[in-house]
Write a structure and sequence with these properties.
The chain is α/β, with parallel strands linked by helices. It contains 30 helices and 29 strands.
Length: 853
C-alpha cells in the first residue's frame, strides 16, 4: 500500500499529503506573482526587477513553508491512517521547520531539503523565516524544536526519508529554480516582510479545501494540478482582476459611475489629477461629493493597471455600513452585473454586495441567497476579518486597515493584500496622535511598495496636512497662521504635484445661524428639541458622550416628548456606539429613513433623533435643526454637515439652517484643572474624548463672535482659528498658568501616545529575524478608534430588546480590563440582556450597553 504520510492537511478523517499542500501554496504564490500589480509591488520592495528564475526560487522557498510538519511529533497528532504511534512529545511545525536549517546538528534533513541550493540562491535566514512564519507572527527557535527528529520505530514513517521525498519533488517541480546562474534573491528587510505576507496569503488560499480537494497518496504529477487550481482560485476569489479591467476599459468616466451626473468642481480637479501622484488629499466641504471623487480616482487607477483593488476606510461602523451600498452600486455600474461584490469589512456585519450571511461552526458561512460554488468562492474575502483586505473592493472601518501596520497576528498578510489597493481614508482629521502615527507608518509602507492612497477631510488643519504630506520624512516648514488661512478651500493636495484650488463659481453656499446656549444638561437639550419638533422640524441632537445622549433621551421622555422620538420596534430609540451590530443596522436604517433627503421617504411630522458622534460622519442625513454640544471646530463643522444638506422644503421657522451649541454656563476654566465633563477635558490618566480644551474654547469664541457661518467659504478661517499652533499659544498666554499647564499636559500625553504607537507599529525596516514577539491578543493593541473597542462574542445568539438575534457586542476601548477571548453567557432579565466579564457586570437594553456600578 502506498504510504499516506506525511500528511499536510486533515479534516473529518480525510488527509492531504504534505507535498500536495506545499505544492498548492507554492502554486498560489506563483499565480499571485504573475499578476502585474503584485509583481510591481514585489519589485519596488526588492529594489530591482525580478526574473522568472527569481520567482521560481521564491516559489520553491514557499514550497518549504510547512517543512516543519515532517516532525514526528506533529505527524503523530490525531490517528492518521488508523495506526497508533508510540509515545511522542507533541510538536508544532513553525519553529520545527526553522530548526531544520538553524539548529539540527547533523544537517541531514536540511541537505535533503536542498539547503545547498538555498545558499546558492542567496536565501538569508530572514527570508527563510519569512516563509515559515506564515501563521501570522514572527517566532524564535526554542531548543526543543530541534529535538525529537529521530526515526520512529515503525515502518510507516521516517522523517529523513520523507524529507528526501519532499526535496526531490521540490527539484522536479521547480526546475528553473535549480538552473545554474542567477543573481542572489533580494534580501531587503521590507522585501522579507512583503514576502511573508504573500506566502501567508498563498497559504490561506492553498488551505481552502473547496479550492484544493484533498489527495492523500503522494502523486508525482500533482504539481500541474495544483497550478491549474491556483489559477482558478486567484481568478475566482477576485485577486486576478483582468476580466473586470477589460470590462471597465474606456468607461472610467464620472458620468458612468454617478449614473449620469456631471462632476462637481472638487470632483473635476480630482479626476484630472495625475495618476503618477501616489498620495492625494482632497479637502472639501461635507456634501461636496468626496466619496464619488475617490471612486472616480479608483476607476482611473484600476483601468490604467496601477491598482487591483480598493479599500475605503471610514472612522465608524455606521459610516462604513452606509457608504458600503453606495460603493457597491458604483462598482456595478462600472463593471456590469458580473462586477465583484463590495465586501463590508466591519466585524459583526457579514455582508458581500447586497447579500448578508451568518457564521456557522467550523468557520463556515451561511449566505442568504444560497450561492453556487463560484459565487461562494468569490465571497472568500468577506468570510473572515483577516481576509478583508484581499477583496477586490472593501468598505470598512479604519481600524481594520491599521491592523496591517501593527504588531498583531496576520499583519503581514493584511499589508501584502493591501499593497494592491487604492487606500482611501475618509475623515482623516478625526485621527488622534496614536492613530496618526500608525496611519502615517501604514502610508509609508504602502506608498514605498508602490501603492496609492487618497485622504479626505472637510476640516483638515494646516498642521495636520503638513504631517500627512511628509510621511516620506521629507522636511516641510510649518505654515504661519496668515499663510494657512490664505490657502484655497476647497483644494486638492498631492505629494508630487503640489496644490490646486477648486473654483466654486456658481456653487451654492450655506449660511448657518449659530447660537451659543448657556448650559448643556439633558433637560435643556430636550426642551429645545421638543419645542422645535412640535413645530414640525426634524431635530438632530448630537451629544459628546453616550451618557449625555442617554440623559437627553430620558429627559425628552420625562418632558412628554416620547412620541416625538425616533420609534423602532415598538418603542422610542436613540443612536450611539454601544449597540450590538445587528441592532445598529436597524437603528441606522431608521435614522436614514427619518432624515432622508428623498421627499418620497421623508415624513412630514417633526421628529427628534438623539445620538452621539455616530451621527456626525459620512451619513447622508438631513436635519432641519441641529442641537449639539460644544466641541472642536472641525468636529462641529462635521455635525453642521448633517444640517440642510439638500435643497428641501422646510417647516415654518426652519427655512434657514440653525445650530444651537450647548456650552457650560460658567465657561471652560474649571475643566483646565484638569477635569472631564461631557467629552471635554481630560481624565486623570490623560485620556478623554476632546482633550484639546484650547480648541474647544477657541470654537466657543468663534460661535459667540460669528453668529453666521458661511460654508464652505469660512471653513479654512474657522479651522485654523481654533487649531493653528499660533492661536493655541496666544490663548495660553492670555488665560495664564492654569491653561498653560493644561496644554503642557495635553502635549505630553500626545507625545506619549505617539511613542506608544512607535513601539507597536510593524517594523518593516528590520530584518525578519530581529522582530519582537507579537502580542497574543490583537484586540489589546490593535487601535484606539473612539468608542469602538474590543468585540465580545456570546456563547449563543440571544434576542435583543429590538427583536433582533444578536451574537455579541463591542465594548468601548476605555473600559479597560473588560475583555474576554472566550464567549460569554448572556442572560435575559426583564427584557434586557445581562452578562459578566471577570468581575464586571453589564446590562444591554433599549438605551444601549451600560456597565453596572
Amino acid at each position: 500500500m502506498e504510504p499516506l504520510l506525511p500528511w499536510g492537511k486533515s479534516s473529518f478523517g480525510l488527509t492531504h499529503h504534505l507535498a500536495h499542500h506545499c505544492a498548492d501554496v507554492a502554486a498560489c504564490f506563483e499565480a499571485l506573482a504573475k499578476l502585474p500589480v503584485v509583481r510591481n509591488r514585489m519589485e519596488r520592495s526588492a529594489g530591482r526587477a525580478l526574473t522568472e528564475t527569481d520567482i521560481s526560487r521564491l516559489a520553491a522557498l514557499t514550497f518549504l513553508h510547512d517543512c516543519g510538519k515532517l516532525h514526528p511529533g506533529f505527524q503523530a497528532k490525531g490517528d492518521i491512517a488508523g495506526i497508533s504511534w508510540p509515545p511522542l512529545t507533541p510538536h508544532g511545525h513553525v519553529q520545527e521547520g526553522a530548526a531544520i536549517f538553524d539548529r539540527v546538528q547533523d544537517g541531514a534533513l536540511a541537505d535533503a531539503l536542498n539547503v545547498a541550493a538555498l545558499h546558492s540562491w542567496g536565501v538569508s535566514l530572514g527570508l527563510l523565516f519569512a516563509a515559515i512564519a506564515h501563521h501570522g507572527r514572527p517566532f524564535s527557535v526554542e531548543p526543543k524544536a530541534g529535538k525529537g527528529w529521530e526515526a520512529v520505530l515503525r515502518p510507516d514513517y521516517a522523517p529523513l526519508a520523507a524529507a528526501r521525498q519532499l526535496g526531490g519533488l521540490m527539484r522536479a517541480w521547480f526546475p528553473l529554480a535549480f538552473a545554474a546562474g542567477g543573481a542572489p534573491l533580494p534580501d531587503r528587510p521590507d522585501f522579507q516582510h512583503l514576502f511573508c505576507g504573500l506566502v501567508s496569503l498563498s497559504d490561506w488560499l492553498g488551505s481552502t479545501q473547496s479550492l484544493f480537494p484533498f489527495v492523500a497518496g503522494c502523486d508525482p504529477d500533482y504539481m500541474e494540478r495544483a497550478r491549474q487550481q491556483a489559477t482558478r482560485a486567484v481568478a475566482g476569489i477576485g485577486l486576478d482582476v483582468q476580466r473586470w479591467r477589460s470590462a471597465i476599459e474606456g468607461k472610467a468616466r464620472f458620468e458612468l459611475l454617478s449614473d449620469g451626473k456631471k462632476p462637481r468642481p472638487a470632483q473635476e480637479v480630482t479626476g484630472a489629477w495625475s495618476l503618477d501622484d501616489p498620495l492625494v488629499i482632497l479637502e472639501a466641504e461635507t456634501g461636496s461629493g468626496k466619496t464619488e471623487a475617490a471612486l472616480w480616482r479608483f476607476a482611473q487607477l484600476f483601468e490604467a493597471g496601477r491598482v487591483d483593488s480598493l479599500y475605503f476606510a471610514l472612522p465608524t461602523r455606521a459610516a462604513a455600513r452606509q457608504i458600503h451600498q453606495r460603493v457597491n452600486d458604483v462598482v456595478r455600474r462600472l463593471m456590469g452585473e458580473e462586477a465583484p461584490e463590495a465586501v463590508q469589512a466591519v466585524p459583526g456585519y457579514l455582508r458581500s454586495g447586497d447579500i448578508s450571511g451568518k457564521t456557522l461552526p467550523a468557520f463556515e458561512v451561511l449566505w442568504d441567497d444560497d450561492p453556487d460554488e463560484a459565487r461562494r468562492i468569490a465571497r472568500w474575502a468577506a468570510e473572515s476579518g483577516r481576509r478583508y483586505l484581499a477583496a477586490t473592493v472593501a468598505v470598512g472601518t479604519v481600524d481594520q486597515v491599521m491592523l496591517a501596520a501593527l504588531q498583531v497576528k496576520h499583519a503581514h498578510l493584511r499589508a501584502a493584500a493591501l499593497s494592491r489597493s487604492l487606500l482611501v481614508i475618509d475623515e482623516i482629521h478625526s485621527s488622534d496622535p496614536y492613530m496618526t502615527d500608525i496611519q502615517s507608518h501604514l502610508l509609508t509602507m504602502h506608498l514605498e511598495r508602490g501603492g496609492h492612497a487618497m485622504l479626505m477631510s472637510a476640516t483638515l488643519g494646516a498642521e495636520a496636512r503638513v504631517k500627512w504630506l511628509s510621511t516620506d520624512n521629507r522636511s516641510r516648514k510649518r505654515q504661519d497662521f496668515e499663510t494657512a488661512i490664505a490657502a484655497p478651500y476647497p483644494a486638492v493636495w498631492g505629494r508630487r504635484d503640489g496644490l490646486q484650488g477648486v473654483d466654486r463659481a456658481g456653487q451654492h453656499s450655506k449660511a448657518v445661524a449659530l447660537a451659543l446656549v448657556a448650559g448643556w444638561s439633558g433637560e435643556l437639550a430636550a426642551r429645545h428639541a421638543i419645542e422645535a419638533a412640535r413645530q414640525g422640524a426634524k431635530v438632530l441632537v448630537i451629544r459628546n458622550t453616550v451618557r449625555a445622549a442617554q440623559e437627553t433621551f430620558e429627559a425628552v421622555r420625562e418632558l412628554g416628548g416620547e412620541t416625538l422620538l425616533m420609534q423602532v420596534a415598538g418603542g422610542a430609540a436613540l443612536h450611539h456606539s454601544r449597540f450590538a451590530a445587528e441592532d445598529r443596522r436597524l437603528l441606522d436604517a431608521h435614522v436614514e429613513r427619518l432624515l432622508s433627503p428623498d421627499t418620497r421617504i421623508r415624513e412630514a411630522e417633526g421628529v427628534i433623533i438623539v445620538g452621539s458622534q455616530t451621527l456626525e460622519q459620512s451619513l447622508d442625513i438631513d436635519a432641519d435643526l441641529l442641537i449639539t454640544d460644544l466641541c472642536p471646530v472641525d468636529v462641529l463643522l462635521q455635525r453642521i454637515g448633517r444640517l440642510h444638506r439638500h435643497e428641501l422644503g422646510r417647516p415654518e421657522n426652519f427655512e434657514a439652517p440653525q445650530c444651537l451649541v450647548l456650552s457650560p454656563e460658567d465657561g471652560l476654566d474649571r475643566l483646565a484643572k484638569p477635569a472631564f465633563e461631557n467629552g471635554l477635558g481630560q481624565f486623570r490618566d490623560g485620556g478623554g474624548v476632546y482633550r484639546n480644551l484650547h480648541a474647544c474654547e477657541l470654537t466657543r469664541r468663534l460661535v459667540r463672535d460669528h453668529p453666521t457661518w458661511v460654508i464652505p467659504e469660512m471653513n479654512r478661517l474657522l479651522v485654523e482659528s481654533a487649531t493653528h499652533p499660533e492661536r493655541i499659544d496666544a490663548l495660553s498666554a492670555e488665560l495664564g498658568p492654569l491653561w498653560q499647564a493644561y496644554w503642557n499636559g495635553v502635549y505630553g500625553k500626545d507625545v506619549a501616545d505617539a511613542q506608544s504607537a512607535k513601539h507597536l507599529r510593524l517594523p518593516v525596516e528590520c530584518d525578519f529575524t530581529s522582530l519582537p514577539p507579537f502580542a497574543d491578543v490583537e484586540e489589546k493593541v490593535r487601535t484606539r478608534l473612539g468608542a469602538e473597542g474590543a468585540r465580545i462574542d456570546f456563547a449563543a445568539p440571544v434576542t435583543s430588546p429590538f427583536g433582533e438575534q444578536i451574537t455579541g457586542i463591542t465594548l468601548p476601548s476605555h473600559w479597560q480590563g473588560a475583555f474576554s477571548e472566550a464567549p460569554v453567557e448572556p442572560q435575559v432579565v426583564d427584557g434586557a440582556i445581562t452578562f459578566r466579564i471577570n468581575d464586571a457586570a453589564f446590562r444591554y437594553g433599549r438605551t444601549g450597553l451600560m456597565r453596572e456600578g
